[in-house]
Specification:
Elements (H helix, E strand, L loop, with lengths): L5 H19 L3 E8 L2 E9 L9 E3 L4 H7 L5 E2 L13 H4 L4 E8 L5 E9 L9 H23 L1 H11 L12 H18 L3 E7 L5 H14 L5 E4 L4 E7 L3 H17 L5 E6 L16 E3 L1
Antiparallel strand pairs: 1-2, 1-6, 2-3, 4-5, 5-6, 7-9, 7-10, 8-9, 10-11
Helix pairs in contact: 1-4, 1-6, 5-6, 7-8
Length: 293
């Protein structure tokens, strides 16, 4: 199942969760992402809990953590009677009596998150074998769509970059308008899949045409094929680093500044997380915010 754009995948998941709720009940259904020690709610359907898309809880407190690390039943009709789940810290925060949790793997085979459902009342129907078998089939379908879409994200980025026509005529890099459209596309991917991205802001002073082109060429040579560079005028450049960490962004920043310094070009470079409209972002760099070589 191939959904060509990330917002279409989000709509697919929303529709799937709505269908699951109508077929199997449960107060709320979620597509979740484990991100470090966080449990991020990517898609939410239903009511009964004060939980919304984009909310983050502690992964170690959740029943899903117990489901993955010390496997209990994938569907539990009464959490208070299940030894593996009943003392999960999240049960002190939320009234949870019934639980469904299906681990989902990404395209590399690593744990992505879970298909999860919660209910404040017991649900005896979850004990039926045919119900549990049907839930597992639905989880496999969702996982297949997830894997297919995650595997195609880099090619999607490359395609968007080469199809973007708004470019600086001197450097050939994205201009302001093209840069903003590329950022919007990456924000949608981050929101759909719980990803993080970093932005490097590179700026100098009184660069002549030759040095400006040298900077542009250096950016293009040092970044990955799925990264995207822009020239924003007034000797300001920017690089988008999708699915990147603060540590890796700092390394790229240092390599870039070293390469420019070797060519006799003094620049400054700051790394920061890509800010998302819903407030989701990775922590800032733990090292100095800016560097100059």
């Amino acid at each position: 199942m191939h959904w060509g754009k990330t917002h279409s995948f989000t709509e697919f998941v929303d529709t799937k969760l709505l269908d699951l709720r109508s077929r199997f009940g449960m107060a709320m259904w979620f597509l979740t992402r484990r991100r470090g020690e966080d449990w991020l709610l990517l898609n939410v359907c239903g009511e009964g809990y004060d939980l919304n898309r984009g909310d983050t809880l502690a992964w170690g407190d959740t029943i899903c953590h117990r489901r993955v690390t010390d496997p209990g039943p994938p569907a539990c009709s009464d959490v208070t009677r299940e030894e593996a789940y009943r003392d999960a810290p999240i049960t002190d925060q939320l009234s949870i009596r019934a639980y469904v949790g299906m681990p989902l793997r990404d395209h590399t085979g690593a744990l992505f998150g879970t298909l999860c459902a919660l209910d404040p009342e017991p649900r005896p129907d979850l004990d039926h074998e045919n119900v549990q078998a049907a839930l597992k089939r639905q989880a496999r379908l969702l996982e297949s769509a997830l894997v297919w879409n995650l595997a195609g994200l880099d090619q999607q980025r490359v395609t968007e970059f080469f199809e973007e026509e708004s470019r600086d005529p001197e450097t050939g890099l994205l201009d302001d308008a093209g840069w903003l459209r590329i950022l919007d596309g990456e924000r949608r991917r981050c929101q759909a899949y719980g990803l993080g991205a970093m932005v490097l802001k590179v700026h100098g002073s009184r660069l002549d045409d030759e040095k400006r082109q040298l900077v542009a060429d250096s950016l293009a040579a040092l970044i990955r094929h799925q990264d995207m560079a822009a020239y924003l005028g007034s000797d300001r450049f920017a690089i988008l680093l999708p699915e990147n960490t603060t540590h890796c962004a700092a390394q790229i920043r240092d390599r870039l500044l070293d390469a420019l310094n070797a060519k006799g070009i003094l620049m400054r470079c700051e790394a920061e997380p890509l800010r998302l409209s819903e407030g989701l972002m990775q922590p800032p760099l733990s090292t100095a915010d800016g560097a100059v070589h």
